[in-house]
From TrEMBL:
Recorded superkingdom: Bacteria
UniProt feature coiled coil, ranges: none
Bilayer-spanning residue ranges: 36-56, 63-88, 94-115, 127-151, 163-183
Protein name: CBO0543 family protein
Organism: Virgibacillus byunsanensis
Keywords, comma-separated and alphabetical: Membrane, Transmembrane, Transmembrane helix
Top-level taxonomy: Bacteria, Bacillati, Bacillota, Bacilli, Bacillales
Keyword Transmembrane part of the UniProt annotation: yes
NCBIfam families: CBO0543_fam
Length: 188
């Protein structure tokens, strides 16, 4: 490894450690157990999990879980990327290292999982309803979150961009799920 490369890696690691310390300090000061916003974020994590546990179709659990995991991964990656680029932020967090954990891991993917289940059980068009759900998240939930300072956008990011992200995550997740279903059928 070259000296310049090692020097830059050491600088990146040092700066990352410093940012982590700032995140912990911020969380302790403004986003811990003592504020109501923390408990709202906890509810955004726990309530969808309870609803999912009660209402998931046990016969389709693996299909729905695979789809939901796909959505979660794409949503979490892009959310993390957007935070890193300074495109948006989540001022209230469950833990300092996972700024949008409640949305990434619970509220959004579970909503899409339950929508998928509903469209399968009622023979409805998943694509149409996913666009509607994406619109609800982008044009209803996110503005509420912005007004309550649970979410901030920067550098020209707007609700249309968020809507397109929600739709894109759905399409990619559905395509990957369809691919695996096709491979499973082909293997049988």
């Amino acid at each position: 490894m070259k000296e310049k490369q090692l020097e830059l890696l050491n600088k990146i690691r040092s700066m990352a450690e410093e940012v982590t310390q700032f995140q912990i300090e911020y969380w302790k000061s403004f986003s811990d157990f003592g504020i109501w916003q923390f408990w709202v974020v906890i509810l955004m994590l726990i309530i969808p999990l309870i609803v999912l546990f009660i209402s998931i179709d046990k016969g389709k659990m693996l299909l729905l879980g695979f789809f939901g995991l796909n959505y979660h991964i794409w949503f979490a990656y892009v959310n993390s990327f957007g935070i890193s680029l300074g495109l948006w932020e989540y001022p209230y967090q469950i833990v300092p290292f996972l700024p949008s954990f409640a949305l990434d891991a619970s509220l959004v993917p579970i909503s899409f999982m339950l929508l998928y289940q509903w469209t399968l059980n009622h023979k409805k068009n998943i694509y149409l309803y996913s666009i509607l759900l994406s619109g609800i998240f982008a044009f209803v939930l996110k503005p509420i979150m912005v007004n309550l300072h649970f979410f901030h956008m920067f550098k020209g990011v707007n609700y249309v961009h968020l809507f397109l992200f929600y739709v894109a995550f759905f399409i990619v997740s559905k395509l990957i799920t369809n691919l695996f279903l096709w491979l499973q059928q082909k293997g049988n």
